[in-house]
Amino acid sequence: MNSAPDVKEREGILKKLMFLTIRDKNALDEYIKANRFRNVKDNMRFAELLGYGTSKSAMCRYIKKIKAEYDENKF
């Protein structure tokens, strides 16, 4: 029984990170610190599966992609 979040749930988490980043450039760092890296590292692994790599800059690339695809008001 794997309790890992499914694709839709992980995309939701990444969209939340994107929204935080739009509001405040330091929000991503604060979110990482607050969650003790665990959830964000999982999301980075997920981003890698989508072809974005596992670094913080890779997360930023994914965030930019989401930002381009979705209007900020949808979150």
Describe what this molecule looks like in 3D:
- The structure is a single chain.
- The protein is mostly helical and 75 residues long.
- It has one domain (7-70).
- It has helices at residues 7-23, 27-34, 38-49, 56-69.
- Helix 1 (7-23) crosses helix 4 (56-69) and helix 3 packs across helix 4.
- The longest helix is centred in the first third of the chain and has 17 residues, at 7-23.
**Number of helical regions:** 4
Number of domains: 1
Number of strands: 0
The level of helicity is 55-70%
The biggest sheet amounts to:
none
Rg result: 12 Å
CA distance, first residue to last residue: 31 Å
The succession of helices and strands, N to C, reads: HHHH
Average pLDDT confidence is 61
* pLDDT < 50 runs, ≥5 residues: none
What general form does the structure show? globular
How much of the sequence is in beta strands?
under 5%
Structural class: mainly alpha
Give the SSE layout:
Elements: H1 7-23, H2 27-34, H3 38-49, H4 56-69
Keyphrases for this structure?
0% strand, 75 residues, single chain, 68% helix, mainly alpha
Short description:
With 75 residues, the chain is mainly α.
